[in-house]
Amino acid sequence: MRRSSRFASASAAKNIATHLRCRLREQQGSSSLEFITVGMVMLIPLVYLVLTMSVIQGGALAAEGAARQAARVFVQAETVAEAEDSAGQAIEFALNNYGIDASDSSVVIACTPDPANCLTRRGYVTVSVAVVVNLPLAPPVLTGNFPLQIPLDATVTQQVSQFRGSR
User: Fold this and answer.
1) Residue (of 156, 95, 93, 88) closest to 131 by Cα position
2) Is 55 in contact with 47 (CB distance < 8 Å)?
3) Quick check: 66 and 105 in contact, CB under 8 A?
4) The pTM is what?
């Protein structure tokens, strides 16, 4: 009797395996549907993440480039009025290269050790540029407790040449 129960359980296992193989053969074509579904569920957030990171990186590079170029042209100018004009042009040019409107940025220029005379020999000029970038594909009508804009800023300090004015 024992032998027959072993054979019966082995036979049942073989029947189950055969039944599963038959069922798997019947499900043709569903793998492509599953691939598309899972691919979309994973691909859409990944694409949005890449878009968002590229917008943030572009804004950070724009702010840093604008601050760096503005500080460089500021310390090379002959007069403070010329320096401010050149710095403004450098900031506008750098931000426009990244598609950021210069009117949406804020710029602060500070001078040390003499704030009244920014072009003092061996003085330091610090330029801070702050910009705000919008999240991609975010409609402006959305409001809530989550930000749709990301503020970015950069600060650069340049030293005025010790030979300034000796020409």
Assistant:
1) 95
2) no
3) yes
4) 0.72
Whether 58 has a pLDDT exceeding 50, the answer reads: yes
Q: What is the largest CA-CA distance in the chain?
A: 115
For the stretch 86-145, pLDDT in tens is 999 999 999 999 999 888 899 999 999 888 888 888 899 999 999 999 888 877 676 666
CB 140 within 8 A of CB 148: yes
User: Is residue 32 classed as helix, strand or coil in its secondary structure?
Assistant: helix
Contact between 109 and 84 (Cβ < 8 Å): yes
From residue 36, alpha-carbon distances to 32, 80, 156 in Å are 6, 62, 48
Three-state secondary structure call for residue 165: coil
Find where tokens 């572009």 sit.
Answer: 58
Structure tokens that stand for 15 in this block? 């029947």
Which two three-digit tokens encode residue 44?
Answer: 């859409």
- Residue 51 has which token pair? 């878009």
**Residue 94 near residue 69, CB atoms below 8 Å:** yes
Q: What token pair was written down for 154?
A: 């950069």
- Tell me the three-class secondary structure of 101-160, residue by residue: CHHHCEEEEEEECCCCCCCCCCCEEEEEEEEEEECCCCCCCCCCCCCCEEEEEEEEEEEC
The residues pairing with 133 across neighbouring beta strands, listed in sequence order, are: 150
